[in-house]
Structure formats: structure tokens, C-alpha cells
Amino acid sequence: MDMASFGADEWIEAAYRRFNEDGLAAVRVEAVARDLGASKGSFYWHFADRAELVAAVMAKWEQIETDFVIDLVERAGTPEERLAVLYDVIVDRMRQRGGERTLYVTAAGEGVDAVVGRVTERRVAYVAALLEAAGFDADEARRRGATVVAAVIGFQQLAAGGWRAGPRVETGELTASILRMSLTPAGR
Amino acid sequence: MDMASFGADEWIEAAYRRFNEDGLAAVRVEAVARDLGASKGSFYWHFADRAELVAAVMAKWEQIETDFVIDLVERAGTPEERLAVLYDVIVDRMRQRGGERTLYVTAAGEGVDAVVGRVTERRVAYVAALLEAAGFDADEARRRGATVVAAVIGFQQLAAGGWRAGPRVETGELTASILRMSLTPAGR
DNA sequence: CTCTTTCCATACGGTGGCGTATGGAAGACT
DNA sequence: AGTCTTCCATACGCCACCGTATGGAAAGAG
Q1: pLDDT of B16-29, one tens digit each?
Q2: CA-to-CA distance for B113 and A163, rounded, in angstroms?
């Protein structure tokens, strides 16, 4: 046991950092090895193949994101206050979560769509629960919850493509706007 | 001039088909050549490199999508009726437009973010114009227009990841829901 | 009929990714 | 001390993709 040796955890950690920066496509065996100052020989001693590393990274990601939602659930406050907190969270994490931008598209090809689907479902369920607490019936709350999540991800996509909201409208306002819309009852 | 020869247009057409199926990543020189029954030698006579083909494909895409929006603009009807038409259009094209799913993420890397940004802007502007005609002020209409476009793209992303709306909520309802929400004024 | 231009196929070199083979260093065990 | 297990580096083979080099067929010009 060398003290400077690389356990599987170090590999997963380094790979997770790469995922967080540039998505699953960036978690390449040689690249992660370079980050770690290790070599492929080490990697293939700890892992069967790249897919195993990717699966571990996604497991870590699921854990982190699930804990995050649980934290959100356990907060107190009215639904409106909680949506305000959600706004801060979204805007705050929008910048750093670069890896998630590409995740939805690559998920199927990497065989991790089950994990992604579960995390998505938890997010949708969380927002839906908030909206249900705010007075919407279950089905409408779920539709709106899905819409909020979709819109946030869509904003990321539009920004990743060349689009900018423009001088009159800031990006943060868009998130605020969808949250406001989600709370406005339909009827007249 | 052989009658069975391949002009640049044939290459662009075949490449566009690939883009439409599986995104820009699928427009590979050898693959398109195989589709056409041609070889790389032919390709590199008509094009300087792959980027030139990709640019041509995106130009074609921009043309098609822009014409589409113009068609939409020229239709008559109340804003509500026009949004209903937009709904049909979105749901109808959601299935076939597989290539656009990956476009926003790959745009920067392929150097086509300018085109993508322009098309996005036209779509946002179209929906914003509808909403402004429905009584919203310009800024609010723009925010909501962007939200509608983002939500639709977000739904595609969520579906591409493993997520399904669930047994109680259909995918089509989500599109209907965001359009309805976009038309509901904020005040009480 | 010959020569030139146009168009294209085959073959090659280069890069970057994954996974494997092999040897070796360093501790653990006896 | 000698051996065995653990961990890792270097080197290799393989494949997919891009772009280039080269030779050649087919059609038009004269």
C-alpha cells in the first residue's frame, strides 16, 4: 500500500470533476489519468472499462443531486418562499453545472439514461409538490413542475447555442419569469 | 459531366438527412459518402473540408426553419388560434426533428452557434410577437416567448434523457400546458 | 484521334480514443 | 532472504475519423 497510490475513489473523483466541467464526453481514460498524474495501466487495474467509471461518476452525481433535492425538501417556508430559494439555487448552479448541459443528449449512448431519468423525476416531483402545496391539483402541479424543469434546462440549451436573451431581458429574469408563471393559476 | 455524378448539392442533401436523423455528429465524411455510394475523393473535390459541409447543412437548416417561421407569421387568426397552430406544429415536428436535439450543445464546437442563435432568436421573436398581440407588454412578451421556446426544447432534452412524463401526464399535454401558461396574465 | 479538364476511387498518413500485454517495483508473508 | 501479491507504467494493437496523394476514367476541345 503506497500512500501516493490511486484508489478507485480518486479516479472517480477526478472523473467527476471532468464530467462537471465538460460532460461525460470529457471523461476519457487517458485524460483522467493525466489529471491524476497516473497512467492507463493503473486505471484498468481498478476498473474493467470506461463504462464502469462512467457508471460510478453517474452514481456519485445521482447521490449529490438527490441529497440536494432532499435538502430543499426539508427547508421550511411557504411554497412561494421555497420557489424563491429554488430560483437562487438554479441561478447559482447554472454556471458551474456545465456537465449537465450535455448529459441529456449523451445519456442514452452512455447507457446512463436510467440514472438521469431518476434524477429528473425527483426534480420534477419536488417542484410539483411545491405547486401542489400552493393549491394546484396533482395533475396540473405535475405538468407545471415538468414545465419549470424543462424551461430551466431549455434556457441552458439556448445559451449553449449562440442565443442571448438580449439587452432588454436578462438571463436571470427568465428563470424568475418561469417561476412566476408557474405560480399563476390558469382560471380567470 | 456524368449523369450519375455527385454535385455539391447531393452531398449537402445527404448530409442534411444525416443531421436531421442524428445531429451534426452524424454528418461524417465517410458516412455520407457511403450513403451516397460515393467516396471521400469525390467529397474533397467539392468541399475544402468537413466544416464547409457542416456550414452548408446549417445554412440549409436556417433557410428551412426561417421559411417555416415566416409561414407561421403569415397565417391569419387571433393570437390564441395561432398558438394552437404552433402547438400542432411543435408536437408534429417533435418526433422527426431528432437532429436538433443535440444541436445546441454541439453548436459552439462546430462553429455554427451564430446560425443556431439566429434561428432561436426568430422563434423567440415569433412567439413574443404573438404574446404581445395578445396583450402583454413587449418585455414580458419576450420573457414568455423565450420561456415557451426553452420549455419545448427542455421537454425534448428530458425525453432524450431517460425521463417520461408518467402515466397520469402525457407528453403532448406538457406542450399544451406551457402554451396555456404563457397566455395567462400574471396579475390577479 | 489526341490532349486536357473534370470528376472520382483507392490508398495512405496522422490523430485520438479504448483496451491489453508485459514487465517491474514495493510491500507482505514466512 | 526469497517469494507472492499488489499496484502501476510503458508499449502495443485496434478502430474510427479527417484530410491528402496519386492515378485514372470519361467527356469535351482541337
Answers
A1: 999 999 999 999 99
A2: 8
Q: Select the residue of B102, B162, B184 nearest A117 (Cβ to Cβ).
A: B162
The ipTM estimated for the assembled molecules is 0.92
**CA at B62, C1' at D28: how many angstroms apart?**
38
Q: What is the pLDDT of residues B83-129, one digit of tens each?
A: 889 888 888 887 777 799 999 999 999 999 999 999 999 999 999 99
Q: For residue range A50-99, list pLDDT tens digits in order.
A: 999 999 999 999 999 999 999 999 999 999 899 889 888 888 887 777 79
Task: Name the segment(s) of chain B with CATH classification 1.10.10.60.
Answer: 1-55
How many Å apart are CA B18 and CA B66, to the nearest integer? 20
The answer to whether the CB atoms of A168 and B139 lie below 8 A apart is yes
Q: Which residues of A touch B149 (CB under 8 A)?
A: 154, 158
Query: A with B: how many residue pairs have Cβ under 8 Å apart?
Result: 174
CA–CA dist B188, B186 (Å, integer): 7
What CATH number matches the domain at A1-57, 1.10.10.60, 3.90.190.10, 3.40.50.300, 2.60.120.10?
A: 1.10.10.60
Chain A nearest C-alpha distance from B96 (Å): 16
Amino acid at B21: E
Q: Which CATH superfamily is domain B1-55 in?
A: Homeodomain-like (1.10.10.60)
Q: How far does B79 lie from chain A, in Å, by closest CA?
A: 17
In A56-146, the DSSP E strands lie at: none
For residues B23 and B64, the answer to whether their CB atoms sit within 8 Å is: no
